[in-house]
Amino acid sequence: MKFHQMNWQQRLAAIDANTNLSTSEKALLNHNYSAINEQMIENYITSFSLPEGVLPNIIINDDAYQVPMVTEEPSVIAAASNGARMINMGGGVHTTNVSREMIGQVLINDADFSTIETLVTNQAAHLIDLGNAAHPSMAQRGGGLKRITTRDLGSGFVSVDLHIDTQAAMGANVVNTISEAVAGYFKAQQVGNVVMAILSNFATSSLVTAKVALPFKAIAKAGFEAADIAQRIVLANQFSQRDPYRATTENKGVMNGIDAVVMASGNDWRAISAGVHAYAARDGQYRNLVTWTCDDTTLYGEITVPMPVGIVGGSISIVPLVQTNHKLLNVDSASQLAQVIVAVGLAQNLSALRALVTSGIQAGHMQLQLKSLALAVGATIAEVPVLVTQLQQAAHADMQTARQLLTEMREK
Ligand code: NDP
């Protein structure tokens, strides 16, 4: 029998035969079984969980939000909350989501661009009807295929771009269904070699912008001049404009916040990451996503990224915890969710840059990492606080020291 044809017990037995699992390891796999999750993927064996926390208060467009975040990184939620605290002092984040469309691509080579362009212009209404007939419910609720454009990719390569309103869904499956239907038309016309049809994750028609204006007092920190902090944040940000090495790291910090909310809201974080990073390189050089500027009194921050998330579809309606998270988020639309996510990314970035240009990132990071370090060397939940206190006083809070301190603690 093939692995994917086995039932859950048979799969576990097959893995056990290959791996020689201990009794407690088998119990772990069993304990985390979920009948719902088993339906969601192929070759299911167990469920993998990550910590979820909440950013308790971020003001966005004058409304207060509590935001669930899923992450394994100790400092992420603390940093987001700290960023939000500063941002709230400046009146909160102001966000806009100008359009919310996904792009499906029909990719054709061996093609004459002008022939395809003319065909698309002349047959636009027919092609739109054809696409919408493939998933009529989306058009019925006001969405669906709205317009079609073409791009000449050179050397006979052409992309026919389908602009699709997916309403409250992220829409990958809907877009793919519509794109394949339209691809069928081009195949029949024999205007080139239709290679494939699929959505693009470079969702440039689902851009969200978030802005903050922070009076210097909002970013004040004991031992530092607030105006100096603002200027150093601007400078730090300018390095990322120039240097992809630094930009990648700054954007990773932004994604600490974005991905954590994308995951908590049951959305596809790979799709969001791919789109965001492509957007960061849209002019040919990979750059930072957030821009910071300042005048004599105020620090200004702005981020624009593609954020095609949904509040229905995919795993969202299936996973009970995701539904609870949507209740915490209290958003009514996919657009509103997208704006919350981008606002959290901006808060995350502010917190990281302020730490970097003042006391350095490790001061705050390591306090939180120490708990993970204690667990990593085998401390029990009861031993963790004692070991963390000892690590705080140690010259080097590294794994070797943690192991040694734990051994000494147990010997006592
Ligand atoms: P679904 O396939 O679940 O489609 C959305 C569903 O939501 C449809 O069944 C739709 O109903 C229903 N729905 C109910 N109310 C609404 C509403 N108001 N607006 C819109 N839809 C509504 O999910 P998506 O198409 O959003 O696809 C997302 C999934 O696709 C994710 O799991 C993602 O991981 C995956 N994916 C991603 C890819 C990528 O990013 N490259 C590629 C392929 C898959 P109805 O059927 O009646 O229209």
TrEMBL record:
<dbReference type="Pfam" id="PF00368">
    <property type="entry name" value="HMG-CoA_red"/>
</dbReference>
<dbReference type="InterPro" id="IPR004553">
    <property type="entry name" value="HMG_CoA_Rdtase_bac-typ"/>
</dbReference>
<dbReference type="InterPro" id="IPR023074">
    <property type="entry name" value="HMG_CoA_Rdtase_cat_sf"/>
</dbReference>
<dbReference type="GO" id="GO:0140643">
    <property type="term" value="F:hydroxymethylglutaryl-CoA reductase (NADH) activity"/>
</dbReference>
<protein>
    <recommendedName>
        <fullName>3-hydroxy-3-methylglutaryl coenzyme A reductase</fullName>
        <ecNumber>1.1.1.88</ecNumber>
    </recommendedName>
</protein>
<dbReference type="InterPro" id="IPR009029">
    <property type="entry name" value="HMG_CoA_Rdtase_sub-bd_dom_sf"/>
</dbReference>
<keyword id="KW-0560">Oxidoreductase</keyword>
<comment type="pathway">
    <text>Metabolic intermediate metabolism; (R)-mevalonate degradation; (S)-3-hydroxy-3-methylglutaryl-CoA from (R)-mevalonate: step 1/1.</text>
</comment>
<comment type="similarity">
    <text>Belongs to the HMG-CoA reductase family.</text>
</comment>
<keyword id="KW-0520">NAD</keyword>
<dbReference type="InterPro" id="IPR009023">
    <property type="entry name" value="HMG_CoA_Rdtase_NAD(P)-bd_sf"/>
</dbReference>
<dbReference type="InterPro" id="IPR002202">
    <property type="entry name" value="HMG_CoA_Rdtase"/>
</dbReference>
